[in-house]
Design brief:
By secondary structure, this protein is α/β, with parallel strands linked by helices. It has helices at about 30-40, 50-65, 105-120, 140-145; strands spanning about 5-10, 40-45, 70, 95. About 20% of the residues are buried. InterPro entries: HAD-like_sf, HAD_sf, Phage_SP01_Orf1.
């Protein structure tokens, strides 16, 4: 059974960014999250929202079939002490519209996670890197600086 943890942002990731209101669900957001949960992933709602706005987001997700492992914490029941703990949470993956390159969409998110599991990034054996397949490819800096 998979026990990987995925921290997921709300505004701009699960729903369109209409903060402080709740936007329309992103295409395939809830379907993908349900699929990930069915495969054993633990989902954490990881959002800037707090108080009433956070409660609204949690209820919105619950009405759409998603109950989170934790909300804005590393595990259910964690008590955040700002004097002794970091606000950063513990997760294996973070899904957020503010990452470099922006949010790729839920179809792409699922494929990225699936590929990491299937091709060994998560502990399975990986096929050795073949230099012969890539011998004609030039590196990033070589292309930029025409080396």
């Amino acid at each position: 059974m998979n026990n990987k943890i995925i921290a997921i942002d709300f505004d701009g990731t699960i729903v369109e960014d209409k903060y402080p209101e709740i936007g329309k669900p992103m295409i395939f957001a809830f379907e993908t999250m349900r699929k990930l949960q069915s495969k054993g992933f633990r989902l954490i709602l990881w959002t800037y929202r707090h108080g009433k706005r956070l409660d609204e987001a949690v209820q919105f997700c619950y009405k759409n079939g998603i109950e989170f492992y934790a909300v804005n914490s590393s595990f259910e029941g964690e008590i955040f002490d700002k004097e002794t703990q970091s606000r950063k949470i513990n997760a294996d993956y973070f899904i957020d519209d503010r990452n470099l390159g922006g949010f790729p969409g839920w179809g792409e998110v699922y494929e990225i996670i699936k590929e990491k599991i299937e091709f060994g990034v998560e502990g399975r054996q990986v096929q050795p890197y073949s230099k012969t397949k890539h011998k004609n490819k030039r590196g990033f800096f070589s292309r930029i600086f025409k080396l």
